[in-house]
Amino acid sequence: MSGGELYGLIMAGGRGTRFWPVSTRSNPKQFLNLLDDSTMLQMTAERLRGLCPDDHVLVVTGSSYRKTVAAQLPWIPEENVLLEPMGRNTAPCIAWGAQALSRRAPDGAVMLVVPSDHSIDDKAGFESTVRVAVNAAEKGYLTTIGVPPTRPATGYGYLKRGKRIMDGAWKVAEFKEKPDLKTARDYLDQGCYLWNAGMFVWKVEEIIGSMRSFLPDLAEGVAGLGEVTFPSADRYRELPSVSVDYGIMEKASNVAMVEALFGWDDVGDWPAMRRVGVRKGEVILQDCGSCTVYGPGRLTVLLGMSDCSVVHSNGITLVMSDEHAQDLKKLVARLEKERPDLV
Amino acid sequence: MSGGELYGLIMAGGRGTRFWPVSTRSNPKQFLNLLDDSTMLQMTAERLRGLCPDDHVLVVTGSSYRKTVAAQLPWIPEENVLLEPMGRNTAPCIAWGAQALSRRAPDGAVMLVVPSDHSIDDKAGFESTVRVAVNAAEKGYLTTIGVPPTRPATGYGYLKRGKRIMDGAWKVAEFKEKPDLKTARDYLDQGCYLWNAGMFVWKVEEIIGSMRSFLPDLAEGVAGLGEVTFPSADRYRELPSVSVDYGIMEKASNVAMVEALFGWDDVGDWPAMRRVGVRKGEVILQDCGSCTVYGPGRLTVLLGMSDCSVVHSNGITLVMSDEHAQDLKKLVARLEKERPDLV
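Structure tokens for the assembled complex are given below, as produced in the milestone run.
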């Protein structure tokens, strides 16, 4: 029982405001080489090359990033880059991608959906995990990848493991919102909670059917976009802005989870960078605790500092306490009004 | 009863390691324009111009700074720049300067001794204060300038005000070492303790006589330096390294204090800079407490930071907690071994 060939959908529409000043409106996080010589988008696409041919990879991004994607992923055919007139959360982007694939593979396809700006430490483990997820998807499951937690993270949603379906796959007993620290510690102790990594594998026909059931307005709206890579902004704006987790996964009954055989981090803010190894530039530390430094080409010297991030980019230096990392969005919003040249 | 004309002696030999990375071995604090377009040495020299003619100002500095002093103070005659082969604290530098003046003004002179790297907020008040001190000096007193404290500073020595001598001048009842915070608060409450600002006015013959009484080895050693602006390193090294406060002022009985009619700060480290208004560059703050930023030409953005200094210079950024400001000397000492190119 095959679901057809595997296709990949890379979601690359984010703004990445929590990585200002390196990440800006014109050059957000997924297009930056924060971790490595390659950008996060390039690393994401590279991970898919072992799983499906280059012309089976779609990228959904903002229309203003067309040239950036073409420059960073020259091997992806132009017609595989879907340009959103504006971001409308994950469900519209996935529904649109699924529709495009249903036209290309009318006899059926399996699709893998991945964000473009996460860190994954083991390409082979990723491939093995996806192959297990493809098996579950071919059985008709909407499959999500759960990452065994390594710390009591409060910044992620969790999946509660349910009944075993097959080797390496389980039903999802429950979706859990971001927990408080106490709850996150309980989850870590109990062992049956995994991080929701926002990566999905399913048959194209299955996700389209689920959209029709749970988000009929979205299914109808996407059908009206036509067979284009840059749809009408007026029509796209009308699509309901909802996440695929909330709109589909939490409502469907045929939801499965496979356990990630790789280390994962969503690298959500500057403090997270110290877990994944950012490009520091040269750094000298004395009497310091945990700090993030980003600044290729600059020498950063920290004396007696802890729990903060120091980021250099284009003549700007940001120094931010960890406690306030979530407020960087607010600061960027303020700068958008006061100093739009900086963001 | 005149003591003769007024001469100035500017002590400009400091290393300024507590201002790294802006201050370096080749360009220490007194030669930097940290506060203003002028350097601290230039501001110091400018303050003396209302008090004595340009050719009455001597500068004592390290021999490697000869060209820097000439460039920053072109109006000072070359023969007025005394070049120390190495720093030996304040007493040798002052004794040597006094000897030079006794040759130039054999009929007697009054000398004003000032550090080159302090901040003084009121030139007219400074001049008035010096004039009072000159009166006391002409009466034979070794006169020091006391600054009424504005906060319970633990980084300064204190002078206890004694019996009134004349208008604006008192005996010094006691010299006090740097106090702990509780003691500093007591001093502030009691009102009879003033900061020892390390500025002195005395007759040349009086300080030379006092050197002979209290530091005879020094007096003899200085006499052996000869009439040169760059003495033998071997001879200079033999001079006892002692401060004029400890070596003379705390021992002599004819010590007077005049009260400063100006605001003063020794600007001893980066945290002190926020009291005197450093050249920040452009700064954006959100949810911040007290911080120092120095970085002309750079934009510094602080989010949720308090009690720290951020300093940019020549491709280096230092971020330092206030608690560790005193450890910057240690860090620079470490870099002198590990990365001498940086200091």
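Chain A touches chain B at residues 21, 284, 286-287, 295, 297-305, 308, 310, 312, 315-321, 323-324, 327-328, 330-331, 334-335, 339, 342 (CB under 8 Å). Residues 123-138 of chain A form the longest helix (16 residues). Further analysis is deferred to the final report.
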